[in-house]
Amino acid sequence: MSSFWEYANPRKFMRTTNWLLPLVAAASVVVTATGLIWGFFFTPDDFRQGSTVKIIFLHVPAALMAINAWIMMLVASLVWVVRRHHVSALAAKAAAPVGLVMTLIALFTGAVWGQPMWGTWWAWDPRLTSFLILFLFYLGYIALWAAIDDPDTGADLTAVLCLVGTVFALLSRYAAFFWSQGLHQGASLSLQPGTRVDWAYKAPLYVSMSGFVLIFVALVLAGTRTEIRARRMKALVARERMA
Amino acid sequence: MIPDLGRYASEVLSAYVVSLALLAGVVAWYWLRARAVRSQLDQVEQRQERTE
Amino acid sequence: MEIRVENLACARGGVPLLDALSLSVQPGQALILRGPNGCGKTTLLRTLAGLQPALAGSISLPPDAIAYAAHADGLKSTLSVRENLAFWAAVYGSGGVDAAVARMNLSALADRAAQNLSAGQKRRLGLARLLVTGRPVWMLDEPTVSLDAASVALFADVVRGHLAAGGMALIATHIDLGLPEAQVLDLGPFRARLPAPGRGGSFDEAFL
Amino acid sequence: MIALLIRDLRLAIRAGGGFGLGLAFFLILAVLVPLGVGPQPAVLAAIAPGVLWVGALLACLLSLDRIFALDWEDGSLDLLATAPIPLEAVVTIKALAHWITTGLPLVLAAPVLGVLLNLSADAFGWLVLSLLVGTPALSVIGTFGAALTVGLKRGGLLLSLLVLPLYIPTLVFGAELVSRGAAGLTTQTALLLLAGITAGAVAILPFASAAVIRINLR
Predict the structure, then answer these.
(1) I need a labelling partner for C61 at 20 to 30 A (CA). Which of A49, A205, A225, D207 fits?
(2) Which pLDDT does position A185 carry in this prediction?
(3) For A151-201, what is each residue's pLDDT tens digit?
């Protein structure tokens, strides 16, 4: 199999994703649909939470994807800084909006899920707060990309921002937990995935998780292709002006 | 066919509706941008072919 | 103690400008870079000064030898002439502020704030900064812009003094400097040809 | 390097705006909050630590874009980059100059404004300590943000969008330290964490800022 560095050349990446993208897109629709339908229609109500437990099929995958998207952007930024691998820089840029939306979904579903228990639409629960902070980091990252016109300077600056931002995102997450000791609430309702959830829920949960991963991959591939085309257009126009 | 969602029906439904709307929104955004950039690129490429 | 550049290629904003450029400057010599506007004179100077990575080729320079002067003089308008020079002298760890002020005959303006100087006087202060740095290699980008004839002659004289002392100068300009003994290098022939589509290398080619 | 610090301080004094801007903003905020929230002492006392810390943070933010913008416009950033002192040192000195001209005055003014906001008596010591330990981090992180946006057209807004999330840990631990000090709880963990973040930021961020400046000078 050709090595990962072969894909530095956008041409090869475009050829490969020509057939890969439709496959992943179709798979993402199918898997996510089955996961959500299975979770929504065919799971019993939880004896304590009632039907709100059905929200975990949205919240947990979205929350995981929000974090994994940032990790993917971090890795892509490192690959760009170390190896000047164009496609990874553009993939990082393409991944940011998906991460942003996943964070939004995680925030909204988390707030709605906690609402019956906290009695309010928004409670400064440390987990939700750290997603709110992650949302700000995504916003800053996308805004920085948009503000810079030279693509390579943009890739470099956003890569550095991603590296520094990751450290501060982790610190902020810790700070949010430290800061919320005042607001103590039962740990039973844990938003963390994979806690004492019996099998009837775990199965659809894993399915919708993989569905969300596929959605992320499909959108990133599509986004990267668009970024490559935009870069190609910019290069052609630059060459035209130079001629 | 809709399961009895009990007391929190509105919460569960709103969570699903909003989430799916957000997902549809981001997919649409990627799709529209892809189409716009592709058409601009084709335009530039045709212009280049004519001048070469 | 000489500058040697082999097969240098440099780009601006991802677009390659110069290609396969070689030059060398011996102590006591000056090299004037000529060429139409936007052909890469400034880009070449910035690459040699280390502000910008070269795309290809090698640059060998004596270490810690470069004094770079760009279009903008880098003068702080609220500081006086002497304070500006004293700052740069402290940064470069060398003295000679009064000598530089005298050399560029700015003595009368020594204590005037830089904002109250005319464009020509500011330019002379920028050149005085070069004297203060005590660096053997001068890299100047359009040094004589907005200078009157007398000041240009003064500048040429200062450069001649610098060369006599074993220094070197690389000057990018399209105005006549009055330095007949300087070598001239026209950057025209080194213009990067349009990159053939698909060739790897600089950033944008990967996308062509 | 000291010459650069002296030059920057002299420029800040001569420009006049340097000292006053941050302080004036901090004072105005400390006056506006009670007007907005109402004069009840109990309410003010409860929110005083947070308001003072957010005020200090925003005051720092205000003067960040001036750190590199002036040197970028008159070309001295290019000259500094080719000068013998390393860019990392230049960036650290710039952060130090920003801290002296903006951070330090905030630390000195905070107790006075604490009185305005009816801060409880035994919190004043903690307030000054937390600001003293926290504001250097604000300056160094701010310098990183300023470096990121130095060449951009409307960089000011983007600068605050980039820098504020990075300020969150310092804000949380700083304000927490003051409110725990006010309530007489154990303040050791908050202080250690605040100091740890500042130490880490001061040690590592200049390298990131210098790298970003080099990228922007390209």
Answers:
(1) D207
(2) 47
(3) 889 999 999 999 999 999 999 999 998 888 755 444 434 444 445 567 777
Question: What's the pLDDT tens digit per position in C98-113?
Answer: 888 888 888 888 888 8
pLDDT of the residue at D207:
96
Percent of chain A with pLDDT over 70: 88
The ranges of chain D with pLDDT < 70 are: 16-18
Torsion angle of C-alpha atoms D45, D50, D56, D58, degrees rounded to 10: -130
* pLDDT at res. C201: 43
Mutation for C interface: A148, A225, A242, most C CBs within 10 A: A242
Averaged pLDDT for residues A29-55 = 83
Quick one: which of D59, D73, D94, D42 has its CA closest to D153? Answer: D73
Mean pLDDT check: name the lowest of A18-27, B9-18, D15-24. Answer: D15-24
Q: ipTM of the assembly?
A: 0.89
CB contact at 8 A, A97 and A70? no
Measured CA to CA in angstroms, residue C36 lies from A37, B33, C145, C188, C191 at distances of 68, 40, 16, 8, 11
Q: Does D81 touch chain C (CB under 8 A)?
A: yes
Can you tell me whether residue D108 is helix, strand or coil? Answer: helix
Which among C49, C55, C50, C45 has a CA at the least distance from the CA of C13? C55
Is residue A139 assigned to a domain? yes
What range does the domain containing A227 cover? Answer: 6-182+189-242
pLDDT over 70 at A5, yes or no: no
Task: Give the amino acid at D139.
Answer: S
Which amino acid is it at A149?
D
pLDDT band for position C206 (cuts 50, 70, 90)? low
Examine residue A126 and state whether it is found in any structural domain, yes or no: yes
User: Contact C143/C123 with Cβ under 8 angstroms?
Assistant: yes
C30 forms beta bridges with: C169
Domain tally, chain A: 1
What's chain A's average pLDDT?
86
Between residues D165 and B11, the one the model is more confident about: D165
Asked if A133 has any chain D CB less than 8 Å from its own CB, the reply is: yes
Q: What is the pLDDT of residue D164?
A: 94
Chain C: residues touching A (Cβ < 8 Å)? 13-15, 194-195, 198, 200, 203-208
Q: How many CB atoms lie within 10 A of CB D48?
A: 28
Q: Which residue of D has its CA nearest to C49?
A: D82
- Are D212 and D77 spatial neighbours (Cβ–Cβ below 8 Å)? no
First to last CA, chain A: 39
State the pLDDT at residue C198: 44
For the range C91-96, what are the long-range contacts, defined as Cβ-Cβ under 8 Å and sequence gap of 24 or more? C91/D3, C91/D4, C91/D80, C91/D83, C91/D84, C91/D85, C92/C67, C92/C132, C92/C133, C92/C134, C92/C135, C92/D83, C92/D84, C93/D84, C94/C132, C94/C133, C94/C134, C96/C131, C96/C132, C96/C134
Measured in degrees and rounded to the nearest 5, phi and psi for residue C139 equal -120, 110
Locus of tokens 């006075």: D112
Q: Please, what's the b/e burial string for D53-90 (b: 16 or more CB within 10 A of its CB; e: otherwise)?
A: bbbbbbbbbbbbbbbbbbbbebbbbbbbbbbebebbbb
Q: Does residue A154 belong to any structural domain of this protein?
A: yes
Which residue in chain C is spatially nearest to A11 when comparing CA positions? C207
Whether residue A1 is contained in a domain is answered as no
- Number of other CB atoms surrounding residue C181 within 10 Å: 9
Among the partner-chain residues D11, D85, D217, the one whose CB lies closest to the CB of C76 is D11
Of D87, D86, D170, D98, which is closest to residue D140 (Cα–Cα)? Answer: D98
D173–A contact, CB cutoff 8 A: yes
> Rounded distance, CA D80 to CA D86, Å?
9
